[in-house]
Task: inverse folding
């Protein structure tokens, strides 16, 4: 009977119910998409770094694991010393440059042959490997997002590059240029941001790292396999705060809309509340009826929000193929839980207000 | 229907015409009800002494503002008395908390209102069944069928209140009020919003409930003709009972 009462109440004002459901759906989708976007970008970046195929990465002292924001302070000759270490099969220096021209990108300046030795080479979807100083390799996702084709001239870092290949994504960056050209462009000749090392066998990674720490005290040495665990929102300064702020904002929207919906519902149903009280319904019954109605409305919103999240991701993927959104069931459930808690909080005051109504006044309400 | 009057020895007996001396099922003693409007207390009831025997039907008449509705709300436990006592089936309402009065109302009182007061989102069936649900015994299909057949509602149960005539709505309200076999049925001008034909039908039903099933009924009315359906008529004026003296 309670179920019938709630369903019929929800259907009685379809527009109000729809607005409430939409508000919760937007709340859920906002949380899922923001978390999905941040975690998706971080994990995708980590996977791309792991996709290079190196075992160890060497950076200057105090360098961040966010390799794109580090400068180029290391002499390139360090690479020769690293190559001499036992169990090191190959070393590839890279100069990383942050570019905000036409989007946010990290451009890798690489030495073609050493990078190939470490990574096993690119998979060329179109075109050929870099040969000239102005050659640019673009991965398939960036090519799609920027509408780049082989043979195009692409302006990047105030320099005109010739697109010579579209490569399969997953090898560190989305844009690759010759190391020497990039060193000249950024005024860092014979310098590198990072060295990628390939060990003779993966199980030698720890030994190699120990040797590097002995050879280059203070330098940052990390196993590439650790990137996936390092690339989380909690490790990025301010990112978790940003996520929390966005979640709070989403919850506030949902809470206020549910509050307003239930508040107007209680006002509209004042007489009905009086009737229920005249029938012997106690305060707990009134509270339960309204809270269950809010929960029902919220559950509809959560389901709609999950659908909206997937639809949003699909739309986002079409418009921005380089921005991955990682939607997980865990976060959908968590966002649903957050929305439900917010809805219950938002409905609690109207429900309490309804339960306290004087039955005689309620019955005479117009 | 098992609504029966329990006949007891008349400790403070009442003599109901045509019936035996009975212990009152409803009794008020020096009942006062004050409404606070700003800094002023406005008395609606000024020491009402009133008793109803089991199985009795009583019409309460009086001009607007004389305290009829206040009396109904207080004896029905919807409003708290300011002073005095209200005894319903031996339970003193004035000594009860709001929750206790709610519980008593659930089990012993049925209300019928002038404006029907059906829940607009539910069907006729839902409006009746919700009273059973609140009562706590769950849906009793046999009881439901008996009551709806008695009130001629069998073919209208799937309709919402907005799809029913005034007379049908009031019959649904009566069904809702008696579905849990309350000791007392309180009706607040149940024919006030009905035309004469439907008014007569509703009054006939109330009389049938009283005569055939022994349902105790207290009804407020402005309509002198309506009182002819009742065992006894009580007149009120200025918050007091003026028995035997027509108030209008």
Result:
């Amino acid at each position: 009977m309670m179920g019938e009462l709630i369903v019929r109440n929800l259907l009685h004002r379809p527009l109000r119910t729809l607005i409430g459901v939409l508000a919760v759906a937007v709340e859920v989708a906002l949380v899922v998409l923001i978390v999905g976007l941040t975690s998706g970008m971080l994990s995708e970046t980590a996977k791309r770094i792991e996709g290079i195929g190196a075992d160890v990465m060497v950076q200057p002292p105090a360098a961040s694991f966010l390799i794109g924001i580090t400068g180029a302070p290391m002499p390139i000759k360090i690479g020769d010393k690293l190559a001499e270490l036992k169990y090191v099969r190959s070393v590839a220096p890279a100069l990383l440059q942050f570019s905000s021209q036409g989007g946010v990108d990290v451009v890798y300046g690489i030495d073609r042959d050493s990078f190939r030795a470490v990574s096993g080479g690119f998979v060329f979807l179109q075109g050929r490997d870099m040969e000239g100083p102005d050659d640019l390799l673009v991965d398939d996702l960036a090519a799609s997002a920027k509408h780049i084709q082989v043979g195009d001239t692409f302006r990047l870092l105030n320099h005109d590059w010739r697109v010579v290949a579209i490569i399969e994504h997953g090898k560190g960056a989305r844009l690759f240029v010759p190391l020497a050209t990039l060193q000249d462009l950024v005024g860092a000749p014979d310098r590198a941001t990072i060295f990628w090392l390939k060990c003779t066998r993966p199980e030698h990674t720890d030994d190699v790292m120990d040797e590097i720490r002995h050879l280059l005290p203070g330098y940052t040495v990390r196993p590439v396999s650790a990137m996936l665990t390092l690339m989380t929102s909690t490790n990025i300064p301010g990112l978790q705060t940003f996520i929390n702020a966005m979640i709070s904002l989403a919850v506030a929207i949902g809470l206020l809309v549910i509050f307003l919906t239930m508040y107007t519902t209680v006002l509209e149903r004042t007489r009905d509340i009086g009737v229920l009280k005249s029938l012997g319904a106690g305060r707990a019954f009134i509270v339960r009826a309204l809270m269950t109605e809010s929960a029902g409305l919220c559950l509809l919103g959560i389901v709609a929000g999950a659908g909206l999240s997937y639809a949003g991701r699909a739309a986002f993927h079409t418009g921005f193929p380089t921005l991955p959104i990682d939607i997980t069931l865990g976060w959908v459930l968590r966002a649903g839980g957050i929305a439900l808690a917010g809805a219950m909080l938002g409905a609690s005051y109207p429900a309490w207000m309804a339960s306290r109504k004087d039955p005689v006044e309620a019955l005479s309400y117009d | 229907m098992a609504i029966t009057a329990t006949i007891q020895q008349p400790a403070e007996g009442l003599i109901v015409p045509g019936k035996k001396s009975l212990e009152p099922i409803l009794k008020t003693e020096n009942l006062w009800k004050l409404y606070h409007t700003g800094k002023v207390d406005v008395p609606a009831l000024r020491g009402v002494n009133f008793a109803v025997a089991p199985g009795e039907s009583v019409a309460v008449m009086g001009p607007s503002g004389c305290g009829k509705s206040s009396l109904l709300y207080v004896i029905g436990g919807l409003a708290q008395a300011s002073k005095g006592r209200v005894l319903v089936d031996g339970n003193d309402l004035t000594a009860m908390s709001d929750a206790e009065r709610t519980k008593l109302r659930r089990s012993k009182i049925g209300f019928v209102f002038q404006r029907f007061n059906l829940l607009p989102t539910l069907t006729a069936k839902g409006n009746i069944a919700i009273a059973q649900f609140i009562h706590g015994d769950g849906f009793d299909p046999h009881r439901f069928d008996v009551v709806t057949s008695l009130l001629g509602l069998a073919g209208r149960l799937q309709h919402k209140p907005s799809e029913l005539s005034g007379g049908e709505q009031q019959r649904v309200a009566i069904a809702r009020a008696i579905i849990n076999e309350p000791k007392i049925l309180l009706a607040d001008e149940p024919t006030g919003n009905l035309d004469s034909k439907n008014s007569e039908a509703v009054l006939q039903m109330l009389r049938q409930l009283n005569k055939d099933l022994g349902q105790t009924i207290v009804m407020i009315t402005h309509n002198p003709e309506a009182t002819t359906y009742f065992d006894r008529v009580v007149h009120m004026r200025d918050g007091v009972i003026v028995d035997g003296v027509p108030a209008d």
About this structure: The two ends of chain A are 26 Å apart (CA to CA). Chain A has two domains: 2-44+237-363, 61-218. Chain A touches chain B at residues 1-2, 4-5, 8-9, 11-12, 271-272, 274-283, 285, 358-360, 363 (CB under 8 Å).
